[in-house]
Amino acid sequence: MTSNNGQKTPPLTAGEKAQVGWYVARMCKRGIAGEGVYQGDLEAKVERVIDRARERAEKNAKQDKRK
Length: 67
Known about the structure:
Layout: H1 14-33, H2 40-66
Helix pairs in contact: 1-2
């Protein structure tokens, strides 16, 4: 799976998957409300969750290399 900027999406924890699912559901609900409804705040939240997961994956990869 790749994100908008072409980077591969890191493995997500169960909590992160639930969070992203919640935000996507809210985006869908806003989408039903109308085409012109602003969703940038939710998109930013999803990106932050994915960025945290990416940072965690990089940190874990570095720790695995040390062993």
